[in-house]
């Protein structure tokens, strides 16, 4: 299999589409490396993330919860 690098605009479009579905799907992208992490933390992506999961699971954004920092970053974008 060849090593293919997507152009930044295509990568961001993919990440944006994934983010609209559910923020939990962004985990593997973030874990893929620095480029994936930077793409997920892009302001455009953060503004479009579906935060519906937190409505159902509000305990995951309490002060000591692991997703709290990510949730706050989304709200601040």
Verbal overview:
This is F-box domain-containing protein. This protein is an all-alpha fold. The chain has one domain (8-76). The protein contains six helices and no strands. The chain has helices at 8-21, 27-31, 34-40, 43-48, 52-56, 68-76. The chain is elongated and about 40 Å long. 13% of the residues are buried.
Largest sheet: none
What is the number of strand segments?
0
Parts with pLDDT < 50 across at least 5 consecutive residues? none
Oligomer: single chain
**Count of helix runs:** 6
Distance between the termini: 37 Å
Rg, Å, rounded: 13 Å
Total domain units: 1
Helix vs. strand class: mainly alpha
Write down the overall geometry: elongated
Strand content: under 5%
Q: Mean of the pLDDT scores?
A: 90
Q: What string gives the helices and strands in order?
A: HHHHHH
Helix content: 55-70%
